[in-house]
Amino acid sequence: MSLDPLWRPFNHDNLTFSFMYCFSEHFILPISHDEVVYGKGSLINKMPGDYDQKFAGVRLFLAYMAAHPGKMLTFMGSEIGQFDEWNAEESIQWNLLEYEKHWRLKDFVSKLNHFYITERPMHEIDTNWDGFQWIHHNDYTQSIIAFRRIDKDGNNIICVFNFQPMHRVDYRIGVPFYGVYEEVFNTDDEEYGGYGITNGKRIMCEEKPRHDSNWSIDLSIPPMSAMFFKCVEKLPEPKKKEEKKEEKVTKKAPAKKTTTKKTTKTATKTTTKKTTAKKTTTKKTATKKTTTKKPTKKITEKTPSKRVPSAKKAEAPAKVETAVKVFVEYNGAKVALEDVINNVKIVNGKDAKEITVYLKPEDHKAYFVADGEAKEMDVFFC
Which among 355, 294, 364, 246 is positioned nearest to 9, based on CA atoms? Predict the structure, then answer.
């Protein structure tokens, strides 16, 4: 968590590696006192970013620890956001609770513990894979992971974590059941000092496959946050077999029409054979005349329909394109974002399917990843 969000995409494996061995023993997840003394800094001082981002980072870290398999153990002072290191000769700085951010963090820890105890999937199966299942763990570019915690009755809590200070909109997560989901805990709640970005109480899943599931929900994920969801109303899954049967029935219907046409043709042929040669010749000539007249009628009827689309295309108004220029300003100087993107492509020197750019004005650099290869480039503000 102390790593700058800029470098987290390149260290995503550090976030997920513990799940390789988390069920090999019965683990306790402590914040050791060795990690908050001797110049290492307190928990909240380890967090990068401004004042608000530091508190958001602590809330995210504690929620991640609560959802991780194993039993959590915090160190005194972490629950109130003490900035100074722990000192064995001094008391905890309880006077910090006079400030809003600190007492809201204390309330958050209390509510998180209550949520952990009351929701059985969060703690019931902590020692084997029956209580845990990945949903999504490889979105390293956005530093987002999602997994399910499961109790003995099969009830699920869906846990979603965003380790970047970026608001992710329309982020789709696969869910195990078809029904209505509810956001039951959110570290970005205004009650805890967050921005209050929420998904509401009722989230209807959609029949859009995602993450090896037939159903998914569309989420708005706040920056530096953890969100927990559960299915509050299971609905009967849409039936697909009946639709297939109806398609088969409709396909058989035109086959009957073809048989009737054949019988009528054979009947006309037999009747023509019985008539005299003179009559047949007159009938044939009559039929020829009628056949020649029919295509002329069709041609006259179709000619206006062909001219209609050409007239519409001619009348279509020309679209006006709006030119948009975006500038990044830093210390009174600025640079065009379009120029940065073009220079990144030049520095890369070859075509790439995907390029992710991280612009850091304070370093006068642009860090980018082109098809998995990390590079950097100087950026000049003027």
Answer: 355
